[in-house]
Amino acid sequence: MEPNNAKSHILLWTVLLINSLGLACLYYANKAEKSTEIPNLIGTWSGQNDTISDEKGYKTWDNKVITITEQKDRRFRGTFTYADGTKNFFGVIYPDNISFTWVSTPARGFNHGRILDENTIGACYVEAYEQATAGCATLKRE
């Protein structure tokens, strides 16, 4: 190999390596920045809720609606309406900025969920003991 040709190859590989490292740093810097942003959940969310229980069997509720009315950092509160009326709830977003949990004062269970994208969440309710129930809903922001 000629000396000039070898120098060209070394220069080309050096530029390629520096470019690749720069792109990797940019990607991970943007990813780290985004993961520290707490998602905003305020809004009205609706969708289908599929449940199972001994008392009611397999049920599909076509129009589950929850409204998150306020949020301060990872903490939020809102209301949901169902066949027996309206309940208030409050919850938290976990530090991974994807998972959340909410509870309602009169309820015996918990709602666990995940933020699927900016306008879609998955929320699953579980309750044990006599009124044992499990159900999940995929909810879209209106």
Account of the 3D structure:
This protein is α+β, with helices and mostly antiparallel strands and 142 residues long. The chain has 2 domains: 1-37; 43-141, Calycin beta-barrel core domain (Lipocalin, Beta Barrel). It is built from 1 helix and 8 strands. β2 and β3 form a beta hairpin. The mean pLDDT is 83.
* Sheet/helix structural class: alpha+beta
Q: Tell me how many strands there are.
A: 8
Shape: elongated
Number of alpha- plus pi-helical segments: 1
Which CATH C-level class of the largest domain is it?
A: Mainly Beta
Q: What fraction, in percent, of the residue positions are helical?
A: 10-25%
Summarize this entry quickly.
This protein is an alpha+beta fold.
Descriptive terms for the model:
about 140 residues; alpha+beta; Lipocalin; 8-stranded antiparallel β-barrel; 8 strands
Describe the SSE topology:
Layout: H1 3-35, E1 43-53, E2 57-72, E3 75-82, E4 85-93, E5 99-103, E6 110-117, E7 120-127, E8 133-141
Antiparallel strand pairs: 1-2, 1-8, 2-3, 3-4, 4-5, 5-6, 6-7, 7-8
